[in-house]
Amino acid sequence: MHASTQPPLWSDEVVSLAVEVLRVLADPTRLQLAGLLLDEERSVSDLAQQLDRPVPGVSQHLAKLRMARLVTTRRQGNNVLYRVENDHVRQLVVDAVGHVEHLLDDVPAHHRGVEVVR
To answer: Which residue in 6, 17, 44, 70 has the most C-beta neighbors within 10 A?
Structure first.
């Protein structure tokens, strides 16, 4: 299902949940985590190492992302692997960062074919 192209008149429930999703992503660490999970599954320890942050803190951020249904998990042996929930979440993160790149640069990295460091 696609979002309506008509002037928005969403229900209070939809607006409230959308605000909560955006609020969860409005944290720098959580946005970085979502970016790291766009294309592959990763463990908490891998994510903590990538971000140079303590595992317990990263785990708490992942729990918030999971509660907002922005990431999902699967168990592989003793490891829990995280990934973005679906293509809608992936597009939301890519579009948000892409929009900011356009604000900051005449020719953003994603138009120059430059690999974006996440």
So the answer is: 70
Write down the pLDDT at residue 103: 84
Residue 55 CA to residue 46 CA, distance in Å, equals: 9
Question: For the segment 9-34, what is each residue's pLDDT rounded down to a tens digit?
Answer: 889 999 999 999 999 999 999 999 99
Q: Which class does domain 12-112 fall in?
A: mainly alpha
* Token representation of residue 91: 């597009």
Q: Name all contacts of 49-58 with Cβ < 8 Å and 24+ positions apart.
A: 53/29, 57/29, 58/29, 58/33
Q: Residue 116's pLDDT is what? A: 54
b/e code 31-67 from CB counts within 10 Å (16+ = b): bbbbbbbeeebbbbebbbeebeeeeeebeebbebbee
Task: Break the chain into its structural domains and give their ranges.
Answer: 12-112
